[in-house]
Amino acid sequence: MTKVRKAIIPAAGLGTRFLPATKAMAKEMLPIVDKPTIQFIVEEAINSGIEDILIITGKSKRPIEDHFDSNIELEQNLREKEKFELLELVEETIGLNLFFVRQSYPKGLGDAVLHAKAFVGNEPFVVMLGDDIMDDEVPLTKQLMDRYEKTHASNIAVMRVPHEDTSKYGIIDPEAQIDDGLFNVKQFVEKPEPKDAPSDLAIIGRYLLTPEIFEILENQEPGAGNEVQLTDAIDNLNKIQRVFAHEFKGQRYDVGDKFGFMKTSIQYGLKHTQVKDELRQYIKDLAKDLEAEDNEKAIEEIEEVLKEKVEEEKNKKQ
Known about the structure:
By secondary structure, the protein is an alpha/beta fold.
């Protein structure tokens, strides 16, 4: 059995949900406190035992390459000033087996993955989306790799979501649960309306795929949004070889929209050694202020209702 050694990180999106910040800046470089979101993804890959990583980039994504490259002047400055802790942080992102290729046109996730065909060759590989940061004792990517060692087949990470949110995700139609958290899948459906969704198990941005997916992607017709959808290709792969769904039960942080990004920043900040205590106290103080404001507003609303009642009674007597 071929070992899973390679990971693909698509990072060519325009980041329109974060405009104007992403007008001239890669969305993947937006920091969660002090660490770019894409670094969380790369760290998960490394911690899972991945050896080679290909990042699919696009226009304005050069800062991603620079982040994982050496900055000699900065390193020398930190060394001379004996700021060794900061130097260690900077050097953490250097010397990794990272490769880059550009997706010139935004044709969808399926097209982005197809750009990795030459890099992957005839090996199983992992696709890791940057909008999802996963937290568990065993990294989610490693969980998928462990499943592959037993099934010798593609495994897709899924997680239960509120039924009303199914139109935001690829959703699986599970056939049977064959192991704890492992499902046979009848069909993969891209962003179904809640009334049409076959389950609440949503694809969450980690895929372990066999190389046969590339031939399917090469012939895949555009789907939702007139883009080549990876979910559609996986559904076609499932017709010729088994594709399993692995249910993730850890913590998922969605940094793909503003509110999810803000929540993740707060939750990560509450674990960060340098800011956690101050942030916790700030949140407590803010909660008190907000509660006081809510109480004051409630009192004003009650007073307004009482005034209206008094006016009504006066009008009745007249």
